[in-house]
């Protein structure tokens, strides 16, 4: 590994040996963010494009997301629009994916519900990414008792039966979108925290960190300007996989009747939870939202896999 | 190692205390047994107060918590508020037995399949079996368990029996006994286990085969494998004795952790299949405001998870002598 070379921040640490170590030590100020971070992301994109499934998934996911965002234009009916004379209609010309017990169009509800499901997924992973990164950075950089205390807490949170915690917390908090996001973020920040900490611990062995400390750069600045850019890759991978987990978790909570309430809005989860009883007479009510979840989550997982291969190429 | 274990247990005690405190507080927030009495106009305020006092709910929070904790630690789990004053312990005991049966069967089956598939795909990366197992694994982590459960119910309860022109469902889709069943019936129990085990196993097989694959790839790159080959051992022996046996170590510990986690993580599967285990008991207690049962299930599950985490770490040290815990 090239970790004896004083790497400039902005460079991915492992890739640096390849990308430009010959110029990297030439008298540049150590704590200016490098404008050469861009070529690195271009490399990532080039590698990502080789992962065919990931590219197809990215396209599919973009399509799903666009459909949800532009539901107002695409959806044939409103999300709460009732046709009380057309209850439990099988898929057909009026209702492409059938209608439910209140005469609402399943397709439209999936499109509108996608907004909430995707929003929850993205919001949870962003929050848990920020919290996890902060905890990991501070623990990895400060070491000693700060590290011990933070990591003990992280490990404890990891060891708790997550679903039980989420269910009880959801019951205490409530059923708005914000409540669900907060509850899910509270049990997902530990994985990014551990990943970032491990990476920061090894980064701190590098001379650019030593140099920054010797120059008297304040700790917060070292963490944000020197360490953070070097862990972005890991964070991106962890966060992208969290989106998938969060969408699954939201649907599970809603299925149990503890997620975003159907009284507020449709989500893929609460469409399933509310219609379980009509599974035999109206199977489309469970098929359709379930497939929406599976396809979306599958796409996100493939994208995450492609990102991992592109950012941190397997050595074999 | 004994000192290590003792220290871990010593650290776990305050954590479990914190969990119990949080759960106790949450249980009080979620529901009060007196809530529905308040709504009933025919119950006088005096009667309500007497009922609350009989449950000890008029005491301050700290006193109530310490009383409960004292009773719990000495083995008195209290009585259910909803199920006609039944003792909590027998409820928990039978739920625990049902859950353990389900978890052990599912883990054993998934381990068997996952280990074989993982080993085969590690020996030939990029082969048909490797690619097939990768696809199945991605499906396994992308399908919500409850939806998989519903689909299995539809498939085996309805579609397949229609297709095969059977009178009833091919497999029972809920509970653990058929309606009208008297006494113990081994075949019936086994049939009722099939669908829940299938729903659980997809995820587990996905995890174990991926884990075994990467562990096996690591091991096969080690120098002792080259040494074994250089000694002229037949490839089969190299793979099984030197490869698989060492690759098993991390997977075994993963399975041990799962055993603990699944005791609580079965909530969804048990709910879908109405399987009377810890998860269903927990949900019923939560929705019914039955906090003695709720507290008991949460504490036992949390305890099981911590114990199994410790077992996993110790197992690691026993299986791999290179690891020493100070």
Outline the fold blueprint.
The complex is a heterodimer of chains A (316) and B (326).
Chain A: H1 16-24, H2 37-50, H3 52-69, H4 71-74, H5 106-142, H6 144-159, H7 162-173, H8 177-186, H9 190-203, H10 207-214, H11 219-255, H12 268-275, H13 284-311
Helix pairs in contact in A: 2-13, 3-5, 3-13, 5-6, 5-8, 5-9, 5-11, 5-13, 6-9, 7-8, 9-11, 10-11, 11-12, 11-13, 12-13
Chain B: H1 2-30, H2 35-39, H3 45-54, H4 61-73, H5 88-123, H6 128-142, H7 145-163, H8 186-220, H9 223-230, H10 235-265, H11 267-272, H12 278-288, H13 291-319
Helix pairs in contact in B: 1-13, 5-6, 5-8, 5-10, 5-12, 5-13, 6-8, 7-8, 8-10, 9-10, 10-13, 12-13
Count of distinct strands of chain B:
0
- The helix tally of chain A amounts to 13
Question: How many alpha or pi helices of chain B?
Answer: 13
Q: Which word captures the global form of chain A?
A: elongated
Alpha-beta content class of chain A: mainly alpha
Helix and strand pattern of chain B: HHHHHHHHHHHHH
Helix content of chain B: over 70%
Low-confidence stretches of chain A: 1-39
Order of helices and strands of chain A: HHHHHHHHHHHHH
Report the oligomer.
Answer: heterodimer
If you had to describe this structure to a student in words, what would you say it looks like?
The complex is a heterodimer of chains A (316) and B (326). By secondary structure, chain A is mainly alpha-helical. Chain A has a domain at 116-315: MetI-like (MetI-like fold, Orthogonal Bundle). Helix content of chain A is 68%, strand content 0%. Chain A contains 13 helices and no strands. In chain A, helix 3 packs across helix 13 (284-311), helix 9 (190-203) packs antiparallel against helix 11 and helix 10 crosses helix 11 (219-255). Chain A starts with 15 loop residues before the first helix and ends in a 5-residue tail after the last helix. Helices cover 76% and strands 0% of the residues of chain B. Chain B has 326 residues and is an all-alpha fold. The model of chain B has no long low-confidence stretch (mean pLDDT 82). The longest helix of chain B has 36 residues, at 88-123.
